[in-house]
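As a point of orientation, let us examine one representative protein, giving the amino acid sequence and C-alpha cells.
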Amino acid sequence: MNGNWLARYLDTKAGRPARGLVAAVVIGLGVTLGQASRAAAQPSRGPVNVLLIAADDLGIQLPGYGDSTAATPNLDRLAATGVLFRTVYAAQASCSPSRSSVFTGLFPHRNGQYGLTDAGFSIHPQFVERILTRVLKRAGYRTGLIGKLHVAPDSAFGFDWRPSVDTRRVRDVAAEADRFFQAADPRPFFLMVSFKDPHAADDARLRRTDGFPIQIDGLPTTPLQPTDAMVLPFQGIVAPAQRRRVANYYNSILRVDTGVGLLLERLNRHGGANHTLVIFIGDHGPPFVRAKTTTYEAGVRIPMIIRWPEVGRPGVSTALASTVDIYPTILDAAGLPLPDDLHGRSLRSVLADPNSAWREYLPTEFHLHHPGSVFPSRAIRNQRYKLIVNLLSGRAEPTRRIDGDRAYRESRAARYRGTPVRHAFDVFADPPAVELYDLERDPAEFFNLAGRPDYRAVQDELTRALTTWRVETEDPFLDSAFTDRFASRNQPRSNRGIIGLVIAATAAMALAWGIRRHRRIGNPPASGALPQDLG
C-alpha cells in the first residue's frame, strides 16, 4: 500500500450517490434504543444455554468485515451458521465501560462504570441486582467465567465457576470450557469466555517493540510478517515499527480464531450446540491511536456474530446494533421479563429476519480510560453519517498514546506535512466541538464536514437525534456543572486543583474560542483538500 492508499480507498466507496436528506426527523422513532420492541419479545420454548465469547480489543479487522489480512476460518464458520452484524457499536471504547453495558443493558453514563475499574469506577449500587449473572442465577442458571471480567463490583457477579487461566493460551481455555460443559448439572448455563488477545502485550518492553505477543504456545503456527500492506486505514502510518505492530495485532487475531474453533468444538462434543445461544463480540476497537478510547469508528465499531438455534436465520444484517442489546437478547432467550428502562433491545426479530426493520440511529460515548485521559464525548450515526460532540473541546485533550502505540508521534514526521493523515491526527489530538463524517465516502473519518452549509441538514438531524437520546437515557453530562466536576476530579491528582480553577474561570471564554477554532481547523487545509466527490 503506497501513499495513494487513501485516494484509492475513497474512490472505491464513492459509487453510491448520496441519498436525499429528510428536512424533519421524527425523533421518537428509534432514538431510544430500548423503547420500540420490548413488548414483541417472546420467550423461547425453554431456557437455552448461553455462551458469550469476547475478544479483548478486537475491532472489525476480520474477513467478514472486508479485511482479509488474517484468515479466520472458525469465525467464518460461526458466521455461516448465524447472523453477522455489519454495524455494531460498543457502548464505549474502553474495556470496563463496554463490558458493563453487556451486563446491565445500560450505557455507562447511566450505569456508572465511566472508566476502568483500576480507576475506581463501578456500577452504581442501584443496578447491582440487575447484573446479568445475578438475574440468571435467580432464574436457575449456573454461571461461569473464563478470563477477565474487569467490571466492578467484581464480587457482585457471583459466578459459580471461575478458573484461573491465561486466556492467550487458547488450548488451556478449551480444556477449562470442556470441564464446564461436561459437568453433571441439569441446569441451563451461562458461560462467558474472555480471550485476552488481541489486547497489547502485558510486558512493557514487548509492548514498546512488537506491540503484541508474536506466538503463544506455538500459535499462530505461521505468524504473519510485516509487509507494506500492514497499514491501518484509519491511521495511514507507513513506518516500519508500525507495520511490525500491526502485523502482530493480526497474529493475535489468528490465536482468537483458533480459540473460538476449539471452544465450539468442545461445545459440539458435549451436545450443546443445538440448544445454546452463541454470541461473539469484540469489547471495543484495537489498541491503536484514533481507535481505542475514542468515538471514531475504529474505536467503537466491533464484530458481532450471533447463533440462536431455532430462532436465528443465517445471514448478514445491516441493522444498527449495540452491545446494550446483548443483555435483553440473553434475557429474552432465557424467557425472562425485560426491565422497562433498558437502553437496548432484544435482537430476536433481526436474528429471525436479518433484513427486518430496526433502529434509525446508533449512539455511543466516551468519558475516560484512566485518570488523566478525561475527554467526554458523545456520538451518533445513521446508516451513512456520523456526528461527534466533544464536551470539553478547547478545555481538555484526548490522550495521544494508547497501549504503546506511537502513531501520533509518527504522524509528526515531515513526510505527512500537508497531508490528510497529518490533518486527521491534528484533529484527533485537539478536536473541535463538533465533528461530522460521511462514512460511506470517508470511512476512516479524515474529513470533518461539520459547519459546512451543504451538510447543515445532516448535522441538524443528527444533533436532534443525539440530544433526544441523551435526554431519554438521563445523561448526567447534559449538566455542564457535572461535566466540569467530573473532569476536575479525574485529572491526575497534582493537576486537579489547577484544572478545576481553570475550568471554572474560563468556561464561557473557552466555548467562544472553541467555535472560532472549529471554523479555523474543522476542515482540511488546502493541501489536504477534500476529494471532489466530497466537495
Summary: The chain has 16 helices and eleven strands. Confidence is low (pLDDT under 50) at residues 1-32, 34-44, 494-535. The longest strand covers residues 315-322.
